[in-house]
Amino acid sequence: MSFNSREHSLAAGAPIRLYEFKRGVLRWLYNSSDRDITHNTQIFRSQVGGITDDGIRQTGQASADSLSITAPASLEVAQLYRGVPPSNTVDLVIYDMHHGEPEVLVSWFGEIASVNWPKLDRCTVKAVPFDASLEQPGLRMTWQRGCPHAIYTPPCGVDRNAFKVAAVVQSMSGVAINSGTFAAFPDGWFSGGYIEWPIGAGEFDRRGIAAHTGQVLTLLSGTSRIVLGQSITAYPGCGQVGSICNSKFNNLPNYGGYMHLSGRSPFDGNMVF
User: Fold this and answer.
1) For residue 113, which of 27, 21, 48 has the smallest C-alpha distance?
2) Could you read off the pLDDT of 51-73 as tens digits, one per residue?
């Protein structure tokens, strides 16, 4: 029998759902049956207690098409969202098949939006389709003094490798890390930047830097998953003003703001032009 025949049959169907979570080359593979399933040389593991979802919907509204997956509380991919979520998104691809049939179809794809633990032994993974991001308002260039470009992005043009600083975490609190390496730079040098460290398979986790004083970096979202002796790389931030763009990064031609705007508001009732 074919997939369609089994799918439309009243009694011959044996549906199995495969869940592929991925972040870069990292993979977490699960299936809804009581045994492991091999697909494309990858093993989708069964879960004690089972893994299910509330059904795939196609309403045309991305927010309504979100998917809730219920699984054991110890689900490996869910552990990434205990405390601070990962700095990169975790994508999800769902496949449907029938036991004994070689045909496997892609049924849904999106990314994890959140994870919670409503019970001690269960977790709920909420995923949204990729087209949900298309419904979000986009950014636009405005007439302003400050630069709207995020540091190290293509519009900014600064090469982050030219400014990276390698360091080792010597001590830390719940919100800050300490390394003598940072003391060699003036206060505020790293403010607005970020740190990153490898987590394996070519993937990195990141934390934004809220403030830099001496050898201390205060981090956004705290020091969760950072350990003493951790090797990290720190990247300095930008104050989004022309003087810093010029003196710190020598990048004034790419500055995205208008430094010589009039000090008057265009909305004060008087003609500007």
Assistant:
1) 21
2) 999 998 877 776 778 899 999 99
